[in-house]
Amino acid sequence: MRSWVLLLSAISASLASVFSLVLPFGLFLHLYHGSLLVSASERVSSRAIEVLLYLTPFLILFAFFVFLIILSGLKAPKKVFEIKQIFKAIVIVGLSWFSFIFLIQFLDGAVHNFAESLFFGMIALLLMLLPLIVGIVSGNMMYLIVNKRLFDRFGYNKLNGNKMNKLKHSPL
């Protein structure tokens, strides 16, 4: 993916992934009145609004740069759900996540606690997989929609990189 198509795909991916993570979490904070989260002892419904107002812009900006890096490294998609592309992104994010955990453990001098950190890192990676997959699928959809618009308007197929005079409509 290149140029402004990559930019639009990264924006779409970041918005979809952040809202797929923040909205359920905000609903949980708004509707839950038990004692699961002991540190958040004050049970008011404004906690969900605080999460949406304060956390969401930072997450969208962070996710935009992450998806910009991930989508620029992947090949241009041919369809919305590409399992190979999703697995490659999971491997990239997983390796960077675990190397970050190892770096923090190494700099802290607590490499002997790496097995415990690895366990909690796996749990955190599993929690990040759903927004990651939603973001990649959303980025692929935006890429294919923009290329369909380019084909319909100019007769140019970005997927193959050539003029298509024989076809009257988009191959998508």
Automatic annotation (TrEMBL):
Keywords: Membrane, Transmembrane, Transmembrane helix
Domain of life, source organism: Bacteria
Transmembrane segments: 51-74, 86-107, 119-146
Record protein name field: Uncharacterized protein
Species this protein is from: Acinetobacter rongchengensis
